[in-house]
Amino acid sequence: MFCYYLMPIIFIIGILAIAFEDVIKVNKAATAVAMSIILWLLFILNAEQFLMLNPPQHVKEFFALFPQYRDMPLDELAFAFVEHKLVVGLGDVATTLFFVLGSMAIIDIIDSHGGFGIISQAIRTNVQRKLLWILSFITFFMSVLLGNIATVIVMIAIARKLIPERNIRLLFSSMIIIAANAGGSWSPIGDVTTLLLWTGGNISALHQITSLFLPALVMLLVPLSITTFMLPKGGVVEPLAADEHNTAVSDKMRRRVLYVGLGSLALVPVLQTLIELPPFMGVLLGLVALWFITDRRYADSEDERLQELRVHRSFSRVDISTVFFFLGILLSVQALIVAGQLTIMANILSDTFADKNMIALVLGVCSSFLDNVALVSATMGMYPVEAAGIFASDSSFWTFLAYCAVTGGSILIIGSASGVTVMGMEKISFGYYLKRFTLPVLLGYAAGAALYLLIF
C-alpha cells in the first residue's frame, strides 16, 4: 500500500520540479524522464501487490484480451501484465513523439531556408499599436499550423527585427505568448495538449475548430485591447531591417519550401478526417515531401551552405530535449493510469464538482503553474472516452478542456512551454509579466470561457 500512495507523491514532486526548473538548475527533460523511470520501477517491483488490491479496469481489460493468463502463477501474471501495459503505453506515446519530431524538423527546414522572412517582409507598418495587432493576429493564426512553441520562436525573431527598443518589445513579446496560446487552443495541432486530445479520440479536428474559434478569439481580444493602451499613442518603430537568410537559396526555393511545409501541416487534420491517416504519418508525409525537394535540388551542389539545408542535416538542430520531456511526462501518466491512482482522483473530482465543466475550468487555472501536458494526460487517464454522456468524444467537457488547458497557461509566464520559451529568449521576468498581463489574461480567459458555456 505504501508504494501505491508514494507514486502520486513522486509525480507531484516531479511536476513541481519541472515548474521550478530555473530554481533547481536541472533541465525539465531530465526530471520528467527520471520521474517516469521511478514510477514504472515502483510499479514493476510491486506489481503483484497492485494486482491483489481492488484491480482497476485495466486489469479486467487485460484478462479480457488474454484469458489464458488467468491460471498463471501470480508472479508470472504480474510480469506479463506490466510488460503488456508498458509496450502498449509506449506505442501510444510514440505516435505523439514522432508527430512532434516531424513538425519540429519541418519548421527548422522552413526557417533555415528563410521562409519565415517572407512573412516579415510583408509587414509594412511602423505604427506601434497597429503593429501590435498585426503581429498578434499573425501569431494567432500561425500557431494553428505550426503549434504555439514554434510560432513564438518565429514571431520573436520577427519582432526583434521590427522593434529594436527593448521596453516596447517586451510588451509585444508578452502579447505574442498570449496570442500563440489562444490560437493553439482551437487547433488539433496547435499545442501538445490538443494533439493528445485529438489523437486520443477525445475530440475531432472539425469540432474543435468550429467550437473554440470564437472563445479563443475573445481570449485574444481582451488582453490585446488592454495592451494597446500600454503603448504610447502615435508611437512608431524603426523601419524593417533587411531580412537575413542563406543567400545561396533562391527566392523561388524559399517560397516553395514555405508553401510545401505549411501546406503539409495544414493537411494533417484533413487527411486524418477524410482517410483516417494517423497524424504522425501525415506530418512525416510532409517531411518526406520536403526531403525529396531539397535532396533533388542540393544533391549535386558543392556549396556547403546548400548542403547544410538538406533534411538529414536539420535533424541535428532539432531540440531532442523537448522530445525526451514529452516522453517522460506521458510515460509517467501511463504508470499512474495502469496502477489505478487516477481513477481515485477522478472520483474525488466528480464528487467535488457536480458540473463537470468546472473541472476543466479549474484545471485551466492550474495549468498556469503546472505543466498542462501532464494535467491533460492525467485527465484523459481519469476519464476514459465513453460511447455517450459527458465524457463522450466531442463532448462539451473535452472541448472545454482543450480551451482551458491551453489558454490557462497564459495566466502566468511559466504556465506554458511557449511562455517559458519566450521568457528565456527575451529574459522577461516573472514579476514583469505578472504585474502587466496576468489580470488582462484572467479577464480574457473568463470571457472566452463564459462565451463557450453560453453557446454550448
Largest sheet: none
User: How much strand?
Assistant: under 5%
| Strand elements, count | 0
Mean pLDDT: 85
Structurally, the number of domains stands at 1
Rg: 23 Å
Number of helices: 23
Structural class: mainly alpha
Low-confidence stretches: none
Helix coverage percent: over 70%
- Can you tell me the overall shape? globular
N to C succession of SSEs? HHHHHHHHHHHHHHHHHHHHHHH
Termini, distance in Å? 43 Å
Topology:
Elements: H1 2-19, H2 21-24, H3 28-45, H4 47-52, H5 57-65, H6 74-112, H7 117-121, H8 128-146, H9 148-162, H10 166-185, H11 192-199, H12 205-228, H13 251-275, H14 279-298, H15 304-307, H16 311-314, H17 320-339, H18 341-352, H19 356-366, H20 372-382, H21 396-407, H22 417-426, H23 430-455
Helix pairs in contact: 1-3, 1-17, 3-17, 6-13, 6-14, 6-17, 8-9, 8-10, 8-12, 9-10, 9-22, 10-12, 10-21, 10-22, 11-20, 12-21, 12-23, 13-14, 17-20, 18-20, 19-21, 20-21, 21-23
Structure description:
There is one protein chain. The chain is an all-alpha fold and 456 residues long. It has one domain (92-319, 340-456). The chain is built from 23 helices and no strands. The protein has helices at residues 2-19, 21-24, 28-45, 47-52, 57-65, 74-112, 117-121, 128-146, 148-162, 166-185, 192-199, 205-228, 251-275, 279-298, 304-307, 311-314, 320-339, 341-352, 356-366, 372-382, 396-407, 417-426, 430-455. The longest helix has 39 residues, at 74-112. It is globular. The two termini are 43 Å apart.
What tags apply to this protein structure?
0% strand; 456 residues; mainly alpha; single chain; globular
